[in-house]
Write a structure and sequence with these properties.
Number of strands: 2
Number of helices: 10
Shape: globular
Order of helices and strands: HEEHHHHHHHHH
Number of domains: 2
Strand content: under 5%
């Protein structure tokens, strides 16, 4: 059984890559990140970089939206076939997904790569298409890495969806008041988004938690967390 989804927000005073390194410490695994330079130093034996294919797709989508670019349209169609493969494997096991990716996604990825490499010499440096191709080819290994497994995601869209409310409202809460308030806000958002991802209505969960909190034993405080609350509801 897959582990329940959890979101953890961390507040820091800058976007320095050192904060991400300090947060992860000795964690090992695949790290799905954008092309921000601050993350580059984390790559190594214990952290394997993975790239979000939706970011590559966005480059071609924006180019096509600006003027119906034929080459961008072809790129979108090719990437669309990769997403169609993922959709067909969504309800399968990790083993089934790995097999489908090996049989269908890898050939599609290789075809896309070869097509982009063949196009690049005839595309002007600095052009919109040139930038889209260069971005995709520069991180190609990280973009295609998901297809070597059955458990890695094709993109980072679930995380981007989880932070959308914060991104949309950031101008309204540009200043947290203090670093302590910023850390509290990150903790509260972590709980609310985790509750939502696990099928709990955030406001209802928060109201119930605040009602129980004054008389709840400190030794059992973890039982009020969204995941534990969900387990309790399911056991009823």
């Amino acid at each position: 059984m897959a582990a329940p989804p959890i979101v953890v927000f961390d507040y820091q005073i800058s976007r320095s890559g050192q904060h991400a390194r300090d947060f992860l410490e000795t964690w090992k695994g695949h790290l799905l990140v954008d092309d921000y330079s601050g993350y580059k130093a984390m790559r190594g034996d214990h952290i394997i970089e993975q790239a979000c294919l939706a970011h590559a797709r966005r480059k071609f989508f924006e180019l096509h939206a600006a003027g119906g670019h034929a080459v961008a349209e072809e790129a979108l169609a090719r990437i669309g076939r990769l997403y169609a493969i993922e959709a067909s494997a969504r309800d399968g096991s990790i083993e089934d997904r790995a097999r489908l990716r090996a049989e269908q996604a890898r050939p599609e990825l290789q075809s896309l790569h070869d097509w982009l490499v063949g196009l690049r010499p005839g595309v002007a440096n600095g052009s919109g298409l040139g930038k889209a191709i260069d971005y995709t080819l520069r991180r190609w290994t990280a973009f295609a890495r998901y297809a070597d497994t059955g458990d890695l995601p094709i993109d980072n869209n679930p995380v981007e969806n989880a932070i959308r409310a914060i991104a949309v409202g950031k101008k309204n809460w540009l200043f947290a008041g203090s670093e302590r308030a910023g850390r509290r806000a990150a903790a509260i958002q972590s709980l609310l988004i985790t509750a939502k991802l696990n099928g709990l209505e955030p406001l209802a969960w928060l109201k119930s938690t605040l009602e129980h909190l004054p008389v709840w034993p400190n030794s059992r405080i973890d039982e009020l967390l969204p995941l534990r609350s969900l387990s309790a509801e399911q056991s009823r």
